[in-house]
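Service request form, structural biology core

Requester: graduate student, group of Dr. S.
Request type: structure prediction, single chain
Budget code: on file
Notes: please return the result as structure tokens.

Sequence provided:
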Amino acid sequence: MVFVMVLVVALTFLTIFDKSSLVVIKDNIFNLKIEYILLCVLIIISYFLIQGIYTKGILRTLNHKLPFKRGLYYAVTEFYFSGITPSSTGGQPAQFYEMTKDKIPMRKSYITLMLSTIYFKLILIVLGIVVLVFKRDVIFDSLLIYRICFFLGFTIDALVVILYILLVFKQNLVKSIVKKILSLLSKLKYLGKYTEKFDIDDFVKRYNDEIKFIGSHKQMVFWNFILVFIQRLLLFSIAYVVYKAMGYNAYNYFDLLMIQVIAQISIEGVPIPGGAGISEGILHNMFVMIFASKLADVGMLLTRAFSFYIPVIGCGLIILINKIINRNK
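Core staff response, request fulfilled:
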């Protein structure tokens, strides 16, 4: 997966950058305002600290004590494996594995991870609606492929959120719909044998404890949503901090925030590790409108570096060092 991501990024950069672009990057990279670069680093650190606080808090509500450093390590694990697997599918299984090693009961792990998923998808939906209301011109001025990616990602996230909401309030409706879909799929030659194995009653039963927990801890769920919302806003703020680091002032925080939100939603439905290629292309395409044309290369490179590549590399090193230490013990 790492090789695929590196390959896609390399091809993307070769497509976007030319010799003159590299000269512009070289000439401008040392003129950045250092205080904003340090702010980017602080944002990255804060992102993981908040995730650690969230995990520790949820498990404390579930009467399971967790050292803060382990909550922090779960956050590192989730970010790294989400970054190197298609559609971020590897993050939560890796996190669940670490929780299992710490003897956290399966039910408590499920609740922690399920709420995290709901929060993130719901936040993207809320911000996506804000984009469609206030910044839809930015989307429709983009290339067709990027418009398709945005609406595909938005639709997938919306369906996930709707499914979870229905599981909480309309379980019988979910069962009825899924059974009808499975009945139709079972008639297809190559899908029939797979649909027969899926038991929707068992699936819903498995999530009953989690659903009851959400229903009986509404206040805790709400405040944790606010916490995760702040965490995600911090990460989505990196584009604006990079913009300020390059000495620009014409566009405001909201403009740059919406661009990074559009990029994130667009990679939700793309089965490429870290959304590599799509995210760079979208950011570059939109930054051309905001930065001086050639400086869009610098803006895109720094935004992706601080919001994705540097954290992924840092998390990978932390995981590697932790494995070496544990092996020696």
